[in-house]
Specification:
Number of domains: 2
Helix content: 25-40%
Number of helices: 10
Bound molecules: L-homoserine
Largest sheet: 7 strands, mixed
Number of strands: 11
Strand content: 15-25%
CATH class of the largest domain: Alpha Beta
Structural class: alpha+beta
CATH architecture of the largest domain: 2-Layer Sandwich
Radius of gyration: 18 Å
CATH topology of the largest domain: Ribosomal Protein S5, domain 2
Length: 280
């Protein structure tokens, strides 16, 4: 029997919500699975690829049972900070369970994928949709003002999350931690009400955006120009190199154009819908 599941990509962190906040975006990954002798991914041309044990799809299958043959269709650009690995892991876990007629408990899928990834922000958004906060083994949906529109600038180069995590310092100073807590609190309040004043207080992340800036100065520049052009909030999307802007309709065209001018032909700017629905 074949099991099928779909999960959205996401933008993690949203600035000060490092490893905690994520917004699900309407770019989906669909996975079909059926029991097999060994875990393989079947490409469009019928060729089969055996993922290594450390690949996210192999780990997702192994986390919930025996090997599977997988068909994966994803609209989510890989290694751009748009939650592609979480989405494929979430959809793979659910499809593999369905292929064995096993029940799919979204809370359990979230816990499995958060554990596989080592952080739960993207997993929460991919499983539950909308704006999510993730803590150890627990996720909660947060309110996002309905007039906030995501615009994403996606550079055409890749940045692996593992590499971006290595750029983070092992320790942060107490004062920086305190400023980060304040930014995160103001961000959540600002996103709920589309409150420009609160969102202004949420800018300037020191926990991950500043330490990562050397990996992709372009991302830092995209965030700056989005804010200058009228975005209410802008941040690195996950570990980068994409940047996310949240805008009201009136500023959408100008923000997209400003990000597009910085990106030039080396990438694309997309206006996306929030994925209200996560795992289906
Ligand atoms: N919170 C993760 C990180 C997101 O910043 O490393 C990865 O997409």
């Amino acid at each position: 029997m074949r099991g099928r599941a779909s999960a959205p990509g996401s933008s993690g962190n949203l600035g000060p919500g490092f490893d905690t906040l994520a917004l699900a975006l309407e770019l989906r990954c669909v996975v079909e699975a059926e029991p097999a002798e060994a875990t393989v991914v079947v490409h469009d041309d019928g060729e089969e690829w055996c993922p290594g044990d450390d690949e996210i799809v192999a780990r997702a299958v192994a986390a919930v049972g025996p090997p599977m043959r997988l068909w994966i269709r994803s609209e989510i650009p890989r290694r751009r900070g748009l939650g592609s690995s979480s989405a494929v892991a979430v959809a793979t876990v659910a499809a593999a369970l369905r292929a064995r007629s096993a029940p799919v408990d979204p809370e359990e899928v979230f816990r499995v994928v958060a554990e596989l990834e080592g952080h739960g922000d993207n997993a929460a958004a991919s499983v539950f949709g909308g704006l999510q906060a993730a803590c150890v083994g627990t996720a909660r949906r947060l309110e996002l003002h309905p007039e906030l529109i995501p615009i994403v600038a996606i550079p055409d180069f890749e940045l692996a999350t593992g590499e971006a995590r290595e750029a983070l310092p092992a320790e942060v100073r107490h004062a920086a931690a305190a400023r980060s807590v304040a930014r995160a609190v103001f961000l959540v309040e600002g996103l709920r009400h589309a409150d420009a004043g609160a969102l202004r207080c949420a800018r300037g992340d020191e926990l991950h955006e500043r330490p990562r800036s050397g990996l992709s100065p372009l991302t830092t520049r995209l965030v700056e120009v989005a804010l200058e052009a009228g975005a209410l909030h802008a941040a690195w999307s996950g570990a980068g190199p994409s940047a996310l802007a949240l805008v009201r309709e009136g500023a959408a065209a100008e923000v997209a154009a400003a990000m597009g001018r910085v990106l030039g032909p080396a990438g694309e700017v997309r206006r996306l819908a929030v994925a209200a629905e996560g795992l289906t």
